[in-house]
Structure formats: structure tokens, C-alpha cells
Amino acid sequence: MSYKILVAEDDDSIVDLLKLYLENEGYGVYAASDGLQALKILESNRIDLAVLDIMMPKLNGYEVTKRIRNISNIPILILSAKNLDSDKIIGLELGADDYLTKPFNPLEIIARVKAALRRYYKLNDNTGKENIAATKFKVGELELDTERLELLKNGKEIALTPTEYRIIALLMKAPGRVYTKAQIYETISGEYFESDD
Fold first, then answer.
1. Which is more confident, 16 or 148?
2. pLDDT above 90 covers what percent of the chain?
């Protein structure tokens, strides 16, 4: 399966560079030069991951991230010249899965794209033996619906970030199982570093 990547960036040289590296890895790439164009591409195509710049015309990357989260749980990687901690926190709080600052190493972008795709599609893969019939998991007052990507507590929906969803899905699919900190980090980000503490 060839994953489809949306690159929303108004700098043509960055788009060309990312397209070259992503296509070299076998990914299909859709490019958008502004936020509205990015949303139109998302509405009319199957997109598996989005790479978004923050400072785009018509609709900025934060707004695009919010709108994507209203309709989809695909991985979102923000690539921006804005490098303040507050900018990163806003992006991640709005639903981005990762945040990289410019200038960047294209090989690092590729590695992060691969990690995000592996993490998301491995966790949400319902083809495993234990998941053939199970799309809903109930533990106590909580009910997780993996088809609709929602968590209910006593029938009331609880809003989750993508990271929170991955953690709760991991725990609810195997109630009573104990996970190490490293195992939880690997489920969330695909890797664990001692500095993650």
C-alpha cells in the first residue's frame, strides 16, 4: 500500500525538496500552497498523513490542524519556522502529532513520517486476530469505539488528543496488563529515549 502524504507549504523550494524525498520512499504526495487548498485536497482524496507549515496564506497551519481534527485522526506533522516553545505547545495541543522547526534535515522528516505512519496504522489496524470482531472495548464505565475513534464514559463522549487516544486504546485493549514506560512511549511515538522522562 502506498501511503498518501499531504504537504501544505507556501515555499515552493521546500515543497520540491519534501516531494523528492517522500516520493523516493514510495509515498504519493499532494502539495498545497495555502490552507484552503490543503483542506480541499483532504476532502477529495484519501490522505494518510499531513505535513503542515504554520504560516500559510488564506488559512494558517493551526486552523488547518483544528479542521482536520474535526474530520480525521490522521497523523499531522507541523514543519515551521516558528520555534518558540509556546508555538510548539499550541500546535501539539491543537492535535498535531509532531512539530519540527526549520531549517530541517529532510532525512529526519522522512524518519518522523515513517514513525508516525507505523504508529498510527499499526495501532488502528483491525486485521489482527484479536481485533477481527472487536471494534468496541469496555472497561468499567469507559467504552472505546475504534471504528469511530471515540471514548465514552457512561454514554457521554470524552474529547481526546491523538496521543491520549493511543494511550487509552493501548490500555483498554489489554485490561490488567502492565506496560513499562518505554512500551507506552513506543506506542505513542515509535521510539523511546531516556530524555523522554
1. 16
2. 8
For residue 106, which of 2, 34, 5, 21 has the smallest C-alpha distance? 21
The boundaries of every CATH 3.40.50.2300 domain in the chain are: 4-123
Residue in the structure block whose three cell numbers are 509515498: 27
In the chain, residues under CATH classification 1.10.10.10 are: 129-196
151-162 residue pLDDT tens: 888 888 888 887
User: Full-prediction pTM beyond 0.70?
Assistant: no
Tell me: the pLDDT tens digits for 116-151? 888 887 765 533 333 333 567 888 888 888 777 788
* Domain 4-123: CATH architecture, name and number where available: 3-Layer(aba) Sandwich (3.40)
Q: Does domain 129-196 have CATH number 3.40.50.720?
A: no
